[in-house]
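Dear colleagues,

I hope this message finds you well. In preparation for our joint manuscript, I am sending the ATP-binding protein (Leptospira idonii) sequence together with its predicted structure, so that both groups work from identical material. I would be grateful if you could confirm receipt.
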Amino acid sequence: MGNDLKTLILLRGLPGSGKSSLAKILSEDGKYPVFSVDRYFTDPITGIYEFRYQENHLAYRACESDTRSAMENVVPKIFVDNTFTMEWEMKPYFLLASEYDYTVFTMTLENRHEGENIHGITDDQMKKMALGYQVELLPERLREK
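The corresponding structure tokens are as follows:
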């Protein structure tokens, strides 16, 4: 792989798995952008996270829009840090990557480091998310329009 390779790195995993922490490290502390649905719900001044279910669809759109803008500006490395538990959540990013000629890498993180769930998700909600987690996502299906 040459230095001119445009890459989109999708970090997926359940809350508390370390996605945001790893994204920060891999992005070289902000040298490359990290987009996430969580960012939409985090106050940029106070850093306080406040999830609003009724706005979740707006958060997904904002994350996709930020990613598209970065690709339009030919940012060489872009990170997206979301749970991506279901195929439909990843599909827009594969379509964007195809449109803008980015190579996609997907990293699945597991909570093996006793990470904390800072979003107030209950154990029951986590179990439900884990049960619905699609492990094998076929890239060819993610590229279909």
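For the figure legend, we might mention the following. The first strand starts at residue 7 and ends at 12. Strands lie at 7-12, 34-35, 77-81, 103-108.

With kind regards,
E.M.
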